[in-house]
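Predict the structure of Anti-sigma factor antagonist.
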Amino acid sequence: MAQIEVGLDVRDTAVVVSVAGEIDSNSVGALQPHFDRAVEAADGHPAKLLIVELSRVGYFGSAGLNAVLECYEKGLAAGVAVRLVAANPEVVRPIEVTKLDKVLRPYGSVADAVDG
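Done. Here is the predicted structure for Anti-sigma factor antagonist.
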């Protein structure tokens, strides 16, 4: 089973959920509740901004892509802007190949994502 580490950090400028490890069909079930809590936290935050930080993800399968897209859609429904941070090809390539980079535009850093 793939191992992931998830952290949630409520900052002045945004709520940041950081993920490290491999996101695949084996680990995504453990990840989804963290995304749900992050959307809830961002919904109560004055900035209404959730940043999903994936720069320490070594594998990003279709299950991970679907989980991030679902997080984005839940944020949209709650009035929360969801922005993705990833410069690593393991994450960026699947997003580009599926043409989701128009929706899940990857930022290079948390600071860039905050500036939007």
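The chain is about 40% helix and 30% strand.
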